[in-house]
Design brief:
Number of helices of chain B: 7
Number of helices of chain A: 9
Oligomer: heterodimer
Radius of gyration of chain B: 22 Å
Helix content of chain B: over 70%
Helix content of chain A: over 70%
Largest interface: A-B, 23 and 24 residues
Distance between the termini of chain A: 23 Å
Order of helices and strands of chain A: HHHHHHHHH
Strand content of chain A: under 5%
Strand content of chain B: under 5%
Number of strands of chain A: 0
Shape of chain B: elongated
Largest sheet of chain B: none
Distance between the termini of chain B: 53 Å
């Protein structure tokens, strides 16, 4: 219940901030544009370049989403109030990570068709599998991102810090997402790179397990 | 007594490092790679010390969260800093060897890539540590020391987990070459221990100085409060 309440609260706050959402969408679209122009106009391996562009844009734009949800906590003492309720820290973490996941999924829903159109790759038949790959990547991104965002919350230049910690950690997830999306767009199947699904699941579970162990400690340190 | 011990350990450590370099010069030249192979007598011990230092950071971070004794945080931070120095030596010596062995300074093969990621992440540990508020610094650093440890087994096992790795899985040496490597390893281990102790000593001194300043400040504030009370 607590997780659900935090999830709903974060989503409501995101929904109220239309200007931020528009900025985030435009920022990620401009990343797709820049990379498309850099790779194009004649693509050597469109499926590969499109998947690299999609995931690079999503990961970079995601940092803005993660730091924005942290601002909700620091604005008007929201985080302090949440701690004073005595809510289970892991439930708070789950709620925040789930809201981060939904934000990223919405962004992915915008960028996936854009990358597909700009590079002329993909088809509607592979869309369910592409959604599955995106879910695997974004669960890990939200799980690790929420954990690192909490760690960097009190730090100066936290957006930069978050990038320094998050991107290297998520490289296995990033490679997996790029390889699987490329396989789907190029061959219509992930059979040749199926092992990456296992690696991505392990990375996802590891992030959640570490948060279950350590999130309470992080929250206590701010009290 | 402690000063004499410190001087003694430093002397032994530096003599051993000097002797190990002397042995490296005298060690047999490898048939295929030639003199460049001798870089491995520095590269392998440095890589071992890096992993040892980061493993120590992990263990000390757990100990800090379990006991809340500041000394464990000091051990974790010191080990991490010393580990970064050894990791940098690995990242410099590796390409020097690779240029001769692989005809390129750098290639995106699993061991090199994962080690570079490790270096960036532990660099991030120090930046986080120096940027968060003093009150939460120790806890946040300890959590990070635990989370970042996840990368160590990945670096260790990368040559086995990923196909197409160029990096040697293990090094097999015999005779004088093996003896040189063993001696180098011991010398670097002692050097690591001495540098770590020295770094930890600085942390202890810094903690003592900060405590003294706080007590002094509290004393001054108390005196000022008492003076104000008398004046009223």
């Amino acid at each position: 219940m607590i997780a659900l309440a935090v999830f709903a609260k974060d989503l409501r706050l995101h929904a109220r901030d239309a200007r931020f959402l528009a900025t985030l969408a435009l920022f990620s679209l401009s990343l797709v544009l820049i990379l498309s122009v850099a790779f194009g106009p004649l693509f050597r391996d469109p499926a590969r370049e499109a998947s690299a562009t999609l995931w690079a844009a999503l990961f970079f734009a995601g940092v803005l989403g993660l730091t924005r949800s942290l601002d909700f906590e620091s604005e008007a003492g929201g985080g302090e109030a949440l701690r004073l309720t005595g809510a289970d820290p892991f439930s708070v973490y789950v709620g925040k990570a789930a809201a981060g996941f939904v934000l990223m999924a919405a962004l992915c829903a915008v960028l996936l068709p854009c990358a597909s159109v700009f590079y002329d790759v993909g088809s509607l038949e592979v869309l369910p599998q592409a959604a599955g790959v995106a879910a695997l990547a974004l669960i890990g991104y939200a799980a690790w991102g929420t954990l690192f965002a909490a760690l960097a919350r009190g730090a100066k230049a936290r957006e930069l810090l978050l990038s320094i910690l998050l991107f290297p950690t998520l490289i296995p997830l990033w490679i997996g997402a790029v390889k699987l999306t490329r396989a789907l767009w190029a061959d219509g199947s992930i059979d040749a790179v199926r092992d990456w699904v296992k690696i991505m699941v392990v990375v996802d579970l590891l992030g959640i397990a570490l948060a279950a162990w350590l999130y309470e400690t992080i929250q206590e340190s701010e009290g | 007594m402690m000063t004499k011990l410190r001087i003694g350990l430093w002397t032994v450590a530096l003599l051993m490092i000097g002797a190990s370099l002397w042995f490296v010069v005298g060690a047999p030249v490898e048939a295929q790679m030639g003199v460049v192979q001798k870089i491995s007598y520095i590269h392998i011990p440095s890589a071992t010390m890096t992993l040892l230092a980061f493993a120590l950071t992990f263990a000390a971070s757990i100990a800090y969260l379990a006991t809340r004794a500041w000394i464990w945080d000091a051990v974790a931070a010191s080990a991490c800093e010393v580990g970064m120095v050894f990791a940098t030596i690995v990242l410099v010596s590796g390409p020097l060897w690779a240029r001769s062995a692989w005809n390129t300074w750098w290639t995106w093969e699993p061991r090199l890539t994962t080690f570079l990621i490790l270096w960036v992440l532990y660099g991030g540990y120090h930046i986080v540590r120096s940027s968060v508020a003093e009150s939460s610094k120790r806890t946040i650093s300890s959590v990070l020391g635990i989370v970042l440890f996840v990368n160590l087994p990945i670096v260790w096992k990368s040559v086995e987990w990923w196909r197409g790795s160029l990096h040697p899985r293990s090094v097999t040496m015999t005779g004088d070459m093996r003896a040189t490597l063993t001696f180098s390893m011991m010398a670097w281990l002692l050097f690591f221990a001495v540098v770590l102790w020295e770094r930890l000593r600085l942390e202890v001194l810094q903690n003592a100085a900060e405590t003294a300043v706080r007590e002094d400040y509290a004393g001054e504030a108390g005196k000022a409060a008492r003076r104000e009370g008398v004046a009223r």
